[in-house]
Amino acid sequence: xxxxxxxxxxxxxxxxxxxxxxxxxxxxxxxxxxxxxxxxxxxxxxxxxxxxxxxxxxxxxxxxxxxxxxxxxxxxxxxxxxxxxxxxxxxxxxxxxxxxxxxxxxxxxxxxxxxxxxxxxxxxxxxxxxxxxxxxxxxxxxxxxxxxxxxxxxxxxxxxxxxxxxxxxxxxxxxxxxxxxxxxxxxxxxxxxxxxxxxxxxxxxxxxxxxxxxxxx
Length: 217
What we know:
This protein is an alpha/beta fold. The protein has helices at residues 18-31, 50-57, 65-82, 93-102, 115-125, 148-156, 171-180, 194-198, 209-216, and strands at residues 5-8, 15-16, 88-89, 106-114, 133-137, 164-168, 183-187, 204-206.
């Protein structure tokens, strides 16, 4: 069935943000005297919100709430200044969004990145796209794979579930779609390997942004 609402993950799906996330976390770790990590390592640290990112980046013996909040306090002001230093849309994404919009689909973003950064990055990189909703991690709202973020989008854009698709690059995203009872598209250009996505039964897997158009229009 053709879709009327496409919900996109942000990091690893619309934008390649990994270098800025790595740089911002590494500066916080270094300031506290902790070892830093390669950019590649961060592909497996992200996806469950920034507090989980910091927990994974900390040495195992140092993973406690106090240290997570210490890293967070250093990360946030730095990332807010540097979140667009290296980040950029994946190939074909801007054209995909414009084409879906031109065909009358409603578009939304559902991210585990904190709300302020989610809004800023979407506005910065996709100023001509009229997203019906842009939701990141919000205080008191469970993060993905809990389906609350999808429910909140559907409250704004009431759409039959069979006409909704969720598009993301990780197992967390595929689980979110399963929990929400909607179809999913797993993208293979993002942060996580194909095998992770396959564990959670994506409706489709795609290798290029333009492949999405043929599936849902």
